[in-house]
UniProtKB/TrEMBL annotation:
Positions of the UniProt region annotated as Disordered: 320-347
InterPro entries documented for this protein: MBL, RibonucZ/Hydroxyglut_hydro, Xnuc_lig_assoc
SUPFAM superfamilies, per database record: Metallo-hydrolase/oxidoreductase
Catalytic activity, EC: 3.1.-.-
Gene3D superfamilies: Ribonuclease Z/Hydroxyacylglutathione hydrolase-like (3.60.15.10)
Alphabetical keyword list: Exonuclease, Hydrolase, Ligase, Nuclease
Protein's recorded name: Ligase-associated DNA damage response exonuclease
GO MF annotations, alphabetized: exonuclease activity; ligase activity
Length: 347
């Protein structure tokens, strides 16, 4: 039996011909990395290859690593296998990996979304024979409202809270979601404050894209300066001693999971905004169709349901197990090494 160009094993997605892994979840000698979220870019590999905008991001998160950056579409060959990075539209520096060997083309998406968020390099359709897709939101009930409408709702919420003398605390993951929110917040409403973990990552992203001004919350920040402002913080800040200094405050979360009834209540959030950095059901289907691929491999998320539906459509679709959690499904443990000490407690 012919060995597949890419295969899933206990360490990750392996290309045996090139002896290299894509987004491995265990330490390997050589890793090709799609983006900076901690379930895809892990510490301990011998060397890393990634898109050049992702280099400062993973160096910030992983420390002193041996990493090489590549431009969009730049090809590099390992033992006859040709690789290249192409925009995934998920977060800044996020890539799909195109893999070609003897005329056979595979694409590994990592995480991706097709809506242009005005911050990430927009998703690019790559023609291929086999397409490895995430399925974080692979159910028909997930259908996203256009970003501009969601951001209008967020800015209106902030403005209303300001009129009532309250601080708006908006939770979003430190890498990706926080910068996307920041990009589209309306600074004319008031000042934008940040939690230390958000500020640290935002300063990395600022070197690549234009973002509104922010003010870091420190031990010297006066409580009376906060009402009427908005504070961007990681989800792990919710319920912590740090957040008590925001009183009086209201909380909001931006996540695809806010589409589920009861998700906001379970998280004890005052307001939920449905804003995801992943494809919805329609986005997944349209992306797959656009690639022209006949074989589809479904990974993390609702992969069993989604692959069953694809087979009904006539695709050669199957599932593979991975250790990708999806950044919107994590408990924000990725922030544990980016905490700051402030008055009112440690986060």
């Amino acid at each position: 039996m012919k060995q597949p160009l890419l295969a899933f094993n206990d360490k990750g997605i392996y290309c045996s011909q090139a002896d290299v892994y894509l987004d491995p979840w265990r330490a390997v000698p050589k890793a090709i990395i799609t983006h900076g979220h901690s379930d895809h870019a892990r510490w301990g590999h011998g060397s890393y290859i990634t898109q050049h905008m992702n280099v400062p991001i993973i160096k910030h998160r992983l420390g002193d690593i041996n990493v090489t950056g590549k431009d969009w579409g730049e090809t590099f060959t390992i033992n006859g296998v040709t690789f290249s990075f192409h925009p995934a539209g998920h977060i800044v520096g996020s890539s799909q990996v195109r893999v070609e060997y003897k005329g056979e083309i595979w694409v590994f998406t990592g995480d991706y979304k097709t809506e242009d968020d005005g911050l990430s390099t927009p998703y690019e359709v790559i023609k291929c024979h086999t397409f490895i897709t995430e399925n974080t939101f692979g159910l028909p009930c997930f259908k996203w409202t256009p970003q501009q409408e969601v951001m209008n709702d967020i800015n209106t919420w902030w403005s209303q809270n300001k009129a009532e003398g309250q601080t708006s605390v908006l939770f979003g993951y430190t890498l990706g979601k926080a910068q996307r929110l920041l990009k589209h917040l309306d600074p004319s409403i008031g000042r934008i404050f940040t939690h230390g973990a958000v500020e640290n990552m935002t300063n990395i992203i600022r070197t690549m894209v234009d973002l509104p001004e922010t003010v870091l919350i420190t031990a010297e920040t006066r409580k009376e300066d906060l009402p009427g402002s908005i504070v961007l913080a990681p989800p792990s800040a919710h319920g912590s001693p740090w957040i008590k200094r925001m009183t009086p405050y209201v909380t909001g979360t931006a996540s695809g999971w806010m589409a589920f009834r009861g998700a906001r209540r379970r998280r004890a959030i005052d307001k939920g905004f449905v804003l995801s950095d992943h494809c919805d059901w329609t986005g997944l289907l349209e992306s797959i169709q656009a690639t022209g691929a006949e074989k589809i491999i479904c990974t993390h998320g609702y992969s069993d349901i989604f692959s069953t539906y694809l087979r009904e459509l006539g695709y050669d679709a199957r599932t593979e197990q991975s250790q990708y959690e999806g950044d919107e499904g994590e408990t924000d443990t990725k922030e544990s090494n980016e905490t700051v000490t402030m008055e009112g407690g440690d986060l």
